[in-house]
Amino acid sequence: MHLAPPSAGALPRLLCSLLLAASAAQHGLAAPAAIDTAHVDAHPQASQLAPGWEHGAFMEIFVRAYQDSNGDGIGDLRGLTARLDYLQALGIKGIWLMPITASSDHDHGYATLDYRRIEPAYGSMADFDALIQAAHARGIGVIIDYVLNHAALQLPLFQQALAGPSAPYRDWFVWQDRTPLDWDIWGHNPWTATPNGAYYGTFGGHMPDFNLRNPATLDYHFSSLRFWLNRGLDGFRLDAVPHLIENGAKEWNDQPESRALTKQVQALVKAYPQRYVVCEATADPVAYGADDVCGSAFAFNFQYAIMDAARGKPEAVKTVAAYFEHAPLSMATMLTNHDLFAGQRPWDQLGGKEARMKLAAASYLLMPGTPFIYYGEEIGQAGRTDLDGDGQIRSPMSWGADGRGFTQGTPFRPIAPNAATHNPEVERKDPHSMLAFYKAMIALRNTRASIAQGDYADEVQGQLMVLRRRLGAEQSLVLINYAEAPAQIALDGLPRDTALPALFPADAAAAHSDATGHASFSVPALSVLVVKADTQP
Hints:
Strand order of the largest sheet: 10-9-5-2-1-12-11
Distance between the termini: 90 Å
Shape: globular
Number of helices: 15
Structural class: alpha/beta
CATH topology of the largest domain: TIM Barrel
Radius of gyration: 25 Å
Number of strands: 21
Number of domains: 2
Largest sheet: 7 strands, parallel
């Protein structure tokens, strides 16, 4: 076939297309497709949720691993919607969905391809809308992961930017003419060389960073956030916010500009009534949890102290008790999450010892902060420690003994090794199961405002931790004994000459204060006692 030579005006466009195609071929990519970058105005709507919903217990859900509805072995939005009754019965007030937008990684979803389109394996936008409606009908809020810092190498906008310095969207990303050699992030150089310059990627060349100093880039992201909020979404978990903006080879983490930008995003989201924002900020969680930055942030490292306390280490008990003396009460707490650096599943960390797993659960479900339960944690689901990397903690939810509860097909990843004994079907029948314990702890949070939103005072005696949670006239005493022997403690400053009934366990004997407000309590080994100590209004 003979082709006429291109005109002079068409030559630059042809060269750009050839370079773009060559780049795509080099990386095994399809030609870039158009995506929606249009500006989106804010259309705030009244929340469908009860005030204070964000103080309830959340469930972090990896949609791919939660429930398959069509037999392809991959969890999806329709499957999740079908499991909302389970979450409601558990007492969950919010769900955080790991990325559900179109991605290139075909797994975790953090390599975003399109910020305004649902991952095809998860379903459609209609499925998303149905999920929101069904969740709200059950009093459950929905937040999703938003990856502001970086996108997939295959992102169509970045593929166009690869063509050269004058290419469309070039200044939406971070470039240098030559590869800087003096950078080191976690043992690798974050700059990737191309024929037309080097681009920056905090997490590697497969996920280039956005240039978030560019107003056009910010408008795209702010518009994408509004796109979801306008559809009724209840908020976001913001990924990797300390890495949003870099100032040099030694100033790439937690820069003042990153904190300021995080505050901007919080303000955008909070312009919608009763919306919630929580940040991943491993650099300085407490600083990012402050109202003038994100307003809430995951309490990284706190989970390690909780696990050590659950093992009975006295110094860790002190650390757990004192955490909120200096951290905002709005911090997001957890035992683990989808990243292995945060820890194996509690079952594996504590050797399957359910008594200690329950102590760990009570330690954060009854403390200040917003607790985030990692899916399967509530049934004591084990990890797949025979797998590599993060896959160890991202197996399908153990709905039944053989994996059929998750899918009628072949699961995308092997099921948990203890699925036969630790699944909702089995545990619903056992009043002493992990599931029953989580349900009881969450019920306390849902029925006692002092636990969900109250003030906080702590006291430690050996391996016994006492928390006084107060809101107005309501006071709840939380006593957690991490020791293998019973513990006794005398407390002052209680309501005078009154019965102090146990809220948990229900069969525990009531204590009684004397005329001075003094009372003694006995807490069995490896157990939790929650006491009602309300004052007269």
